[in-house]
Target: MgtC-like C-terminal domain-containing protein
Amino acid sequence: MRPIAEKINKQPMNQTEIETRYSVRVVCRQIDETRIRALLLHAIGNEQLFLRSLHSEDLHDHSGKMEVIAELFTQGRRDQLVESIVGRASLEEGVSFVSWEVV
Model:
């Protein structure tokens, strides 16, 4: 094959070459939103995780709660790392729900 064809046809050699996307959701009180966003940003600062987006939404159920959603990606699977971030967030005061999933 010609060099350009080799690059086009290249298949990932191993799991570390495949991009994995994660969605992390945290529901917290409105007064805790800024702290939770900062906690996520700090935890995501790890060189193995990259932030695609971070946004917050009011739950509109008059509960005074917000949903903070972080969209992340990694090279390869980093499920344990994402789980540790979610586990840490779940310990924070004012947090009522946390989850993560591969998207």
